[in-house]
Amino acid sequence: MEATTLSEVVKTSSSLHYCAQPLVLREEPDEQSSSYVNPSNIIKTYLLERSEEFKEISELRQRGWDNPEGDSFFQKQRQNADRSDEQTAAYFFKLMIRIGHELHRSTGAFATQPGSQHPNILDMCMAPGGFLEVALSKSPASSALAFSLPVPDGGHKVFLRKNLDVEIRYLDVTMLAADMGVDKIPKDHPDADRFLPSQLEQHISFDLVFCDGQVLRTHSRAPYRAQREAKRLAATQLALGLEHLRPGGTMIVLLHKLEAWDTVNILWKFSKFSVVKLVKPKSGHAKRSSFYMVATNIQSRHPDAIQAIDTWKAAWKVATFGSDEEYQRIIWNGELDVEQLLDEFGLELMALGKEIWRVQADALAKAPFIQCRSARG
For residue range 26-44, what is the model confidence (pLDDT) as tens digits? Predict the structure, then answer.
């Protein structure tokens, strides 16, 4: 992709198509607007009318939301995730290893392509390193490049074994301006001196890419990033991961809320140039709305893949440099409106989600904040 200046970004933003995600590219606009119809609500209604699994999980979620003990349960999980002591970090490393093994048993995706002469792995947000540990155990001849937020900036400690063939670069991937196609930074930008030179040469490609980074509450950042950080992080991971994937390769992407407009757009896009499978590991994710998209046999040079890369790069540029008006415009422009997308992809979406919703429903039904509510009546 050729580098662009900010003026070119703004000039072209109205002519490109954009999609969304919570590995998240959109925010909901002011719902007080009489003209606004939340596309996620339309998707939810569509699924409630057609999917027994989604209907069941929706009812269980509502019971959890209605119970303050459910809020306390998930708040405690968030507090544990924010703790930075050695014991907690080691626990999360082991948890990610368990999740990695579970994903591999379901998909075989942690092993690189057979026959690849120099198998290579890219981990966009590596720490604590559990996924990369599993992948390198399945493909011991592989080498890896891993990005990780520095610990002083709020990142997690890395527990990866030191004898593995891994190059770790401690940096904030949302600041990879050159790789995202911007080579001229406005001098008055709040982060003008923080943007990074290119880390991924055009000829570098990978067999397996992990995109499971999430915004860390412990990460200190400029105020302008508060409402846009999830979009910037998601767009960076998806754009650079797909751009540098070898044809036929695999991407493993952490997503949230299958019925969300953002998430549906990602799944629809990948379904056009890869084989998509969704997995909700019972370790660490069973009660939550999170799950993994495992996309295999990705045709990364397909025109739809190239368009997706351009879309995510454009979204990152506007989320990083654009005005609020430009940002709102870009995140709500889509290739298809919600009704068209459901006509084209709705049945496949239900098929993809069936097992995801079943696993979460089984876990929530056994959760103490659901059971105690049922006992009361």
Answer: 444 444 444 567 889 999 9
